[in-house]
Design goal:
This protein is an alpha/beta fold and 250 residues long. The protein is built from seven helices and nine strands, in the order βαααβαβαβαβββββα. The chain has a domain at 3-118 and 179-226: Class I glutamine amidotransferase (GATase) domain (Rossmann fold, 3-Layer(aba) Sandwich). The chain has a nine-stranded mixed sheet with strand order 2-1-3-4-9-8-7-5-6. Helix 5 (80-92) crosses helix 6 (106-112). The chain binds zinc ion (ZN).
Length: 250
């Protein structure tokens, strides 16, 4: 049974900026999905902001093991109810991979409980992505580092909670550094934030970036689903007998 991935794309820059359309004629989401589908163990489909319920209906999410999220220009257009729905799905076990400017998405900020702010600069500089967690499955196949010749700079401080693992740290030509590959767990769900992917550079065509995405999908697969709730447990259903007077001691 292949891993079922939904690749969510905001799909706005691709229609507004010729440069982005030239790099990603079918949209960034289509490029990401194609990269994932190169692995026979992954079956990726796309969903976009413009679809009803942003393409993230309950039926779609029922068939999603891992959701990837790229957004930038239209975070505010994502309906709160859909962001809430995605958050709840993650808590129940769905994997989530948040890409690049998705750091400011409603979904990511809700799950982080933080502002997710950072510093940035668009100067086409080199990014060197270092493996900070050797042996981590998301870094599989990468030796010490890989480089992207042109990227947007994201710099520390990154307004996120301390991650479980820092898989990658980026250095930029201008001197800044950034924690660019972070893992989290929220409820039963695994979350990976991956920094590269500014829309005016061909980052998602990069073979190493594509390998990281495939690695991350495999890592984020739900181990098991958990249905949360607030069940009342009467005394006669408690694991141990309590008795009529409760557990008073003196
Ligand atoms: Zn960007």
């Amino acid at each position: 049974m292949p891993i079922r991935v939904t690749v969510w794309g905001e799909n706005v820059h691709e229609h507004k900026h010729q440069l982005v359309r030239d790099i990603y004629p079918d949209g960034m989401h289509a490029c990401i999905a194609a990269a994932l589908n190169r692995d026979p163990g992954i079956k990726a489909r796309c969903a976009t902001l413009q679809e009803p319920e942003h393409g993230l209906t309950d039926a779609v999410l029922d068939e999603t093991d891992v959701l990837t999220w790229w957004g930038h220009a239209a975070h505010g257009q994502v309906e709160d109810a859909i962001a809430e729905r995605v958050q709840q799905r993650v808590l129940k076990g769905m994997g989530l991979i948040v890409l690049h400017s998705g750091h400011h998405s409603k979904v990511f900020k809700r799950l982080m409980g933080h502002n997710c702010d950072l510093s940035w600069r668009e100067a086409g500089e080199k990014e060197r992505v270092w493996v900070a967690c050797p042996g981590h499955p998301i870094a599989a196949g990468i030796d010490r580092f890989f480089e992207l010749p042109h990227e947007e700079m994201y710099g520390e401080p990154f307004g996120v909670p301390e991650p479980l693992e820092t898989v990658f740290i980026s250095w930029f030509q201008g001197g800044e550094v950034f924690r660019s590959g972070l893992t989290y767990r929220r409820g039963a769900g695994k979350i990976f934030y991956f920094r590269p992917g500014h829309e005016t550079y061909p980052t998602y065509h990069n073979p190493t970036v594509q390998q990281v995405l495939r690695n991350a999908v495999k890592w984020a697969v739900p181990e098991q689903r958990f249905g949360w709730g607030c069940p009342h447990v009467p005394a006669d259903k408690a694991p141990e007998p309590i008795g009529s007077t409760g557990g008073s001691v003196h």
